[in-house]
Write a structure and sequence with these properties.
It is built from two helices and eight strands; from the N terminus they run βαββββαβββ. It is α/β, with parallel strands linked by helices. The chain has one domain: 2,3-Dihydroxybiphenyl 1,2-Dioxygenase, domain 1 (Roll), CATH 3.10.180.10. The chain has a four-stranded mixed sheet with strand order 1-4-3-2, with helices on one face. The protein has a four-stranded mixed sheet with strand order 5-8-7-6, with helices on one face. The radius of gyration is 15 Å and the shape is globular.
């Protein structure tokens, strides 16, 4: 075996299943599937995200999930219209959407949090 074959799965934790399902389904537009007593999966292109209920979950300050998108400004604008608030970090020089552009202009990133405080991100380039 040279590598593991199969669909990648990212894990995200929540304290409130209904709130998190609504956010990932309605705000981010992910398609839910295969619910069970402990959580559920969401389709993410060629990967899956497993949303699991952990009653005492405490988020970290670091990103847990992100998307590489072809047009970060368009994606951020769409999410902002759906109520997503992008993080603005002092001294980063982000634009009004919260997008940071690398000095050479080749890469862009923006961060936001889900209702549990899990940091999510967008990247381009």
């Amino acid at each position: 075996m040279d590598r593991i074959n199969g669909k990648p799965v990212a894990f995200v934790y929540t304290t409130d299943r209904e709130r998190a399902v609504a956010y990932y389904r309605d705000t981010l537009g992910l398609t839910p599937q295969d619910p069970d007593d402990f959580g559920m999966y969401f389709e993410m292109g060629a990967a899956l995200m497993r949303l699991t209920v952990i009653p005492d979950h405490k988020p970290t300050a670091h990103p847990v999930l992100g998307w590489s998108v072809p047009d970060i400004a368009a994606t951020a604008s769409t999410l902002k219209a759906r109520g997503v608030r992008f993080a603005i970090y002092e001294g980063w020089g982000q634009d009004e959407l919260g997008i940071w552009t690398s000095p050479d202009g080749a890469s862009k990133i923006a961060f936001f949090s889900d209702p549990d405080g899990n940091v999510l991100g967008l990247s381009q380039g």
